[in-house]
TrEMBL record:
Keywords: Hydrolase, Membrane, Transmembrane, Transmembrane helix. Gene3D superfamilies: Sortase. The chain crosses the membrane at residues 31-59. Residues 9-23 have a biased composition (Basic and acidic residues). This is Class E sortase. It comes from the Bacteria. The keyword Nucleotide-binding does not apply. Residues 1-27 are annotated as: Disordered. SUPFAM superfamilies: Sortase. InterPro entries: Sortase, Sortase_Class_E, Sortase_dom-sf, Sortase_E.
């Protein structure tokens, strides 16, 4: 009986063939599973890196820029308080520190320091800059007709013009210098134009509907939000000036 049993077992083994070890049969599956696992971990890591980059770009750069702008603003106001002005008289400070402050109630409370130039080095400090190139801005303190054209970031690095789309026709835009408040009134906006469209900065911004020389102000920034594909433009025209009193009482538009 034992011999018969051994023969039957051999025949049975011959019919089915030898069984492969379980580990060998699962080999390719384990490799795929490991590859998927590694790929998933890479995706998670990439997601974390991207998330940190977004936090850095949209939050931390704002923190750093606001601190830098506050330091510069304090310096400007200290200079005003101590009557340290530039060679051209009141309101014409050393442009490396800043020439004044922009107030736009439609964009929120507070002021925006204005400095010379629109390079990233300038704007990344959380300020607005007036154009020197490709079209030179006409400063209000120059007391001559022209276009006081400005730029600032819309997101990151202070995002001073983030809410520019809230400005509507008739809204005030006020520029503050050491001794004068310049009160402008918004008369036109352009929600989207080419970033190469420099005509919006002209002394007479005809694209805004004006045909004659005057005292204009132009605000520009990137659009849509979080991109730099196009430019958003707001135009205003000077309606009056007010002398700064001893208490620096703001004009009615800012109360």
């Amino acid at each position: 009986m034992a011999a018969s049993t051994d023969t039957e077992q051999q025949e049975h083994a011959g019919e089915d063939g030898p069984r492969e070890p379980a580990a060998r049969r699962r080999g390719p599956g384990r490799i795929v599973a490991q590859a998927v696992s590694v790929f998933g971990e890479l995706l998670i890591t990439a997601g974390l890196v991207m998330g940190l980059f977004v936090v850095y770009s949209l939050w931390w750069t704002n923190v750093v820029a606001d601190r830098a702008a506050d330091r510069q603003a304090d310096k400007v106001r200290d200079n005003w308080a101590e009557d340290r002005v530039g060679p051209d008289g009141p309101g014409a400070l050393d442009t490396r520190a800043g020439i004044g402050f922009l107030h736009v109630p439609a964009m929120g409370k507070g002021d925006i320091l204005v400095e010379k130039g629109t390079s990233m080095k300038v704007l990344n400090d959380g300020v607005a800059g007036y154009y020197t190139d490709p079209v030179e801005a006409t400063l209000p303190t120059a007391d001559k007709e022209g276009n006081f054209s400005l730029a600032a970031h819309r997101d990151g690095h202070g995002a001073k013009f983030h809410r520019i789309d809230k400005i509507e026709e008739g809204d005030p835009i006020v520029f503050e210098t050491k001794d004068t408040w310049y009160v402008y009134k918004t008369y036109a906006t352009l929600p989207e134009t080419s970033k190469y469209n420099v005509d919006v900065l002209d002394a007479v911004p005809e694209e805004s509907g004006r045909k004659k020389p005057g005292h204009y102000i132009t605000l520009t920034t990137c659009t849509p939000v979080y991109t730099s594909r196009y430019r958003y433009v707001v135009w205003g025209e000077l309606v009056r000036t007010e002398k700064v009193d001893g208490d620096r009482t703001p004009p009615a538009e800012l109360r």
